C-alpha cells in the first residue's frame, strides 16, 4: 500500500513507525484471528513446534533482542525449551543440538546474510525452519519451510521499531497457540491483553513531549549511557541501548541490574545517565537497589516503571499491561528517547552513519 511508505507529515520515518505500533498490534490481532475471534497459527506450524524437543531462535540485531523476549514467552507459556543465538556466531560455533530441534529465524527484512547462512546449514542438515518476517517472498521466507508474517507494513527507518514489537507479538501468539494445542491452561486472553497493549502504546506515543524532555535532560551532552533492568526488562534494556547507539552515537550499554556492579560500575561518574526499567514485580526491589548503587557513585538515574510498582523517584510510569508483555510497551519510551536524543545531537535519524537497513553480506 503506497500510503504506507509515505512519510506524510512526519519529519522522519522512525517517528512515523514508532507511532504506527498501536495500529500494527491491532492488525496483527486481526490477521491471526480465526472466524471465532481466536488467535490461531497454521496447524502445520503448530505440529512442527509440538514435534520439537527444543527450539533454536536465530537472528541478528533488533530481531535477536525480540528473540530473547520470545524465549521467555515460549518457555513460560508453551513449556518448550528455547535457545536464542546470534546468527553470525551460530554458523561456526554451533551448539550441541537436541534430538529434535526446530529452527525459528527472525528477520524483519528476510534478507540478512548472517541469518541466511545458518538457514542454509540447518536446511542441509534436514531440520525444519520457520521464518518470522515482515517481507513475504523474502529469501528467508522462501528458503524456510514455513513463514509467519509480521504485518507491520514497510519499515523504512534503519533503526527498527515497529518490527521489534510485531515480532514479539507474533511470538506471543505462537506461544499461546502452542500452549493451547498442548492443553496447557493459561489464565488470560491474549486477544484482550494485546488490545490493552495497543491502547497503552497509544498513550506512550502521546507522551512525546515528556520523552523529549528526558532526552534533552539526560542525553544532550553525555558521551555514554547505561540501561539497567532485571528479568525481561534486561532484554528491553539491550534493545533500548541499541536504539540509542544506532542513531545518536552515544555509547550505550544494556545491563542486567545485578551484573553492572561486577565491573562496569567502574564507568559510572558524576552525572552518568542510567535509565532503569522497573516493570517486573518480582524484581522491583532489587532493581531499585541497583539504582541506589549507581546513584551512590554519582549516576543520574531515570527510572521508568509500571503502574502499581512505581515510587516517588520514578521519572515516568507506564500504564499496566500483562507482566509478560511489558516489552511491547516499555520499549516505546526508549525508542522515543533515542529518537529525540539523536535529534538534539543533530544526527541523521533515518540514515545513521555506517548502518544499512538490511545487511546482505556475512
Ligand atoms: C541490520 C539493521 C538492524 C537489524 C538487523 C537485522 O543490521 O541495521 O536494525 O536489526 O540488520 O535485520 P533483520 O532484517 O534480519 O531483522
Automatic annotation (TrEMBL):
Record bears the keyword Signal? no
Q: Which GO terms describe its molecular function?
A: carbohydrate derivative binding; glutamine-fructose-6-phosphate transaminase (isomerizing) activity
Instruction: Give the main localization category.
Output: cytoplasm
Q: GO cellular component annotations, sorted alphabetically? A: cytosol
What is one GO biological process annotated to this record?
A: UDP-N-acetylglucosamine metabolic process
Reactions mediated catalytically: D-fructose 6-phosphate + L-glutamine = D-glucosamine 6-phosphate + L-glutamate
Q: What does this protein do?
A: Catalyzes the first step in hexosamine metabolism, converting fructose-6P into glucosamine-6P using glutamine as a nitrogen source.
* Quaternary structure and interacting proteins, as annotated: Homodimer.
The identity of this protein, by name, is Glutamine--fructose-6-phosphate aminotransferase [isomerizing]
Amino acid at each position: 500500500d503506497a500510503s504506507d511508505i509515505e512519510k506524510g507529515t512526519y519529519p522522519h520515518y522512525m517517528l512515523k513507525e514508532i507511532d504506527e505500533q498501536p495500529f500494527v498490534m491491532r492488525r496483527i490481532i486481526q490477521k491471526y484471528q480465526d472466524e471465532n475471534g481466536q488467535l490461531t497459527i497454521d496447524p502445520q506450524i503448530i505440529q512442527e513446534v509440538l514435534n520439537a524437543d527444543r527450539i533454536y531462535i536465530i537472528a541478528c540485531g533488533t530481531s535477536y533482542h525480540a528473540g530473547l523476549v520470545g524465549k521467555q514467552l515460549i518457555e513460560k507459556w508453551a513449556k518448550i525449551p528455547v535457545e536464542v543465538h546470534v546468527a553470525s556466531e551460530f554458523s561456526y560455533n554451533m551448539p550441541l543440538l537436541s534430538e529434535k530441534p526446530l529452527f525459528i529465524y527472525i528477520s524483519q527484512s528476510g534478507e540478512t546474510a548472517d541469518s541466511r547462512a545458518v538457514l542454509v546449514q540447518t536446511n542441509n542438515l534436514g531440520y525444519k525452519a520457520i521464518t518470522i518476517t515482515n517481507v513475504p517472498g523474502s529469501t528467508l521466507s522462501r528458503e524456510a519451510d514455513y513463514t509467519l508474517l509480521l504485518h507491520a507494513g514497510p519499515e523504512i527507518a534503519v533503526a527498527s521499531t515497529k518490527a521489534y514489537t510485531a515480532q514479539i507479538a507474533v511470538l506471543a501468539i505462537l506461544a499461546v497457540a502452542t500452549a493451547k494445542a498442548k492443553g496447557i491452561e493459561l489464565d488470560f486472553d491474549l486477544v484482550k491483553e494485546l488490545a490493552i497493549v495497543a491502547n497503552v502504546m497509544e498513550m506512550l506515543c502521546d507522551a512525546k513531549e515528556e520523552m523529549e524532555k528526558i532526552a534533552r535532560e539526560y542525553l544532550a551532552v553525555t558521551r555514554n549511557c547505561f540501561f539497567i533492568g532485571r528479568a525481561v526488562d534486561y532484554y528491553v534494556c539491550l534493545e533500548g541501548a541499541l536504539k540509542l547507539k544506532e542513531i545518536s552515537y552515544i555509547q550505550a550499554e544494556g545491563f542486567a541490574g545485578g551484573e553492572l556492579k561486577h565491573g562496569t560500575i567502574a564507568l559510572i561518574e558524576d552525572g552518568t545517565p542510567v535509565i532503569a526499567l522497573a516493570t517486573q514485580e518480582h524484581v522491583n526491589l532489587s532493581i531499585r537497589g541497583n539504582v541506589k548503587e549507581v546513584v551512590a557513585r554519582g549516576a543520574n538515574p531515570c527510572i521508568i516503571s509500571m503502574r502499581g510498582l512505581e515510587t516517588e523517584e520514578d521519572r515516568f510510569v507506564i500504564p499496566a499491561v500483562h507482566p509478560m508483555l511489558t516489552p511491547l510497551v516499555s520499549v516505546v519510551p526508549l525508542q522515543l528517547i533515542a529518537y529525540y536524543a539523536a535529534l538534539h545531537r543533530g544526527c541523521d535519524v533515518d540514515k545513521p552513519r555506517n548502518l544499512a537497513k538490511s545487511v546482505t553480506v556475512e
